[in-house]
Specification:
By secondary structure, the chain is mostly helical. The chain has one domain. 54% of the residues lie in helices and 5% in strands. The chain has a two-stranded antiparallel sheet. A hairpin with a 4-residue loop joins β1 and β2.
């Protein structure tokens, strides 16, 4: 069941998001899907560790996840959440907001906005560039 959910959650999320055009709804659905995938990845890792064979199977072995598979699924879920957080913050900065967008309040709990409030543009460094000033 766990491996089936790991496949169907992104598929169903994509199908639900396909006809939608409201950006806030799309952000919230993707955030929810990534959170579900993160929880499923943790459950998969726990299931693999608890398994006597060191693997979790579904459909008679058609879907199979061992320790390496669980690690890769966990890394993908983590990268998806980090990417969504960065994308939401970049979108908020593009609108001139120095606060968390309303679609991601939980991801913003530990955000550090000091680097955005120091008056410099994103990616700009203090000091001289290669060509010099």
């Amino acid at each position: 069941m766990l491996l089936t959910l790991l496949v169907t959650v992104p598929l169903l999320t994509g199908l639900i998001c396909w006809p939608l055009r409201q950006r806030v709804v799309l952000e919230r659905l993707n955030l929810l899907a990534f959170a579900i995938l993160g929880a499923l990845a943790v459950a998969l890792g726990a299931g693999v560790l608890a398994s006597a064979t060191g693997a979790v199977e579904a459909f008679g072995g058609f879907l199979r996840a061992d320790a390496l598979s669980a690690l890769v699924v966990g890394l993908i879920a983590f990268v998806a959440l980090v990417h969504l957080r960065g994308w939401l913050f970049a979108r908020g900065r593009a609108r001139g907001q120095n606060q968390c967008p309303p679609a991601a309040p939980l991801l913003c709990a530990h955000a550090d906005f000091r680097r955005h409030n120091d008056g410099r543009a994103a990616g700009e460094q203090s000091g001289t560039a290669l060509g010099g000033d």
